[in-house]
Amino acid sequence: MKLKTILPAILFLSALTVPVQAQVGEQRYNFTVGINGGVNLNSVSFSPSVQQKNLMAPVGGITLRYVSERFFRMICGVQLEVNYSQHGWDEFYEDYPDLQYTRKMNYVELPFLAHLAFGKEGRGLQFFLNAGPQIGFFLNESYTQSGPWENYPNLTTEQHDMDVENKFDYGITAGLGVELRTKVGHFQVEGRYYYGLSDFYHSTKKDYFARAAHGVIGIKMAYLFDITK
Asked: Which region is the signal sequence (predicted)?
């Protein structure tokens, strides 16, 4: 990705994670912590392209959220997560069902999110939007492979023998969800999408791939409880 494309997106989403102090709102000091978990539906944006289907893999970690104000009907805050997340891809060729290749890549990820919610502050339902930048640190990887790949030289297979070259991952993420607030804690369900801006393989003109970046659809549940109100 070109720098002039990356920087505006990161700066805009980073700005979202800072509560708007210039506006006059009702102040809040609500600090909430909890755990989250779910599944990722992973794919990789390759150029040249590689045929694949979504790879289902786990994600989970801790959530910290601070709500700073209510502005009219909108509840404003920030959210930080520290997650273990598995990415990768699963190659699929409808015309060659005997071929199989799956790569699983493990990361520690930190989403820095603006949290905007509408609904009940006490017991009841809230609907929320989370959006912001995300960074990740590569841990390790594994793969499984089977089939006579040597019989199909027309397929793109360079990625099979390439290790991760860029271990720092970054991109933008956004999600929509619903939160049930009860006297014993808050229960969330959220759908989220992550768009990788970085390539995990080198992607200069002399390299084989011009792009190799993660794309993730996530479905998560979380349990949170208040530390301060």
From this structure: 1-22
Residue among 70, 65, 58, 62 nearest 27 (CA): 70
**227, two tokens:** 């530390």
- What percent of the chain is helix, strand and coil (3-state, nearest 5)? 10, 65, 25
Q: Which whole-number Å values give the CA distances from 100 to 23, 34, 49, 91, in the listed order?
A: 55, 38, 16, 6
Q: Which of 105, 124, 121 is nearest to 199 (CA)?
A: 105
Distance between CA atoms of 162 and 158, rounded to whole angstroms? 7
Asked whether the CA dihedral 198, 222, 142, 45 is positive or negative, the reply is negative
Look at the block and give the residue holding tokens 């841990």: 139
- Eight-class DSSP state of 197: -
**Rg, the chain, Cα only:** 20
| Domains of the chain in sequence order | 3-228 (2.40.160.20)
Q: Which of 214, 164, 216, 198 is nearest to 2 (CA)?
A: 198
Tokens representing 178 are: 């619903």
